[in-house]
Amino acid sequence: MANGKPAANSRTRGDEFERRAEQFLLEQGLRLLERNYQCKLGEIDLIMSTGNTLIFVEVRYRKNSHFGGAAASVIPSKQQKLRRTAHSYMQSKGLNESRQSCRFDLVACEGSHVHWIPNAF
User: What is the DSSP string of the chain?
Assistant: First the structure.
């Protein structure tokens, strides 16, 4: 809509599910490093770690699984954008990609269900 309310509602809902995902992952023993990391290449919802592994987390919400659901919404172009953004993060922290273990996880929220997919892509 012209007044921007649907986008604002969508962002508010997105924030809510990112907080739920963060809490869920903390309960699984992961450690939070950053929330909503942004650079000119894109945004990563959560950056977490376990042991020596960096975990770049994409959080997706869908009301239901119609049209493929939350997990299916992370299409190859989105995955590539996340990879480039993660590369930027690692460079900004002085981390060497060849020596730093990392992975991309997906937290797919559909309705009230939270599904964690480690090493999703």
Answer: -TT-HHHHHHHHHHHHHHHHHHHHHHHTT-EEEEEEEEETTEEEEEEEEETTEEEEEEEEEESSSGGGHHHHTS-HHHHHHHHHHHHHHHHHTT--TTTS-EEEEEEEEETTEEEEETT--
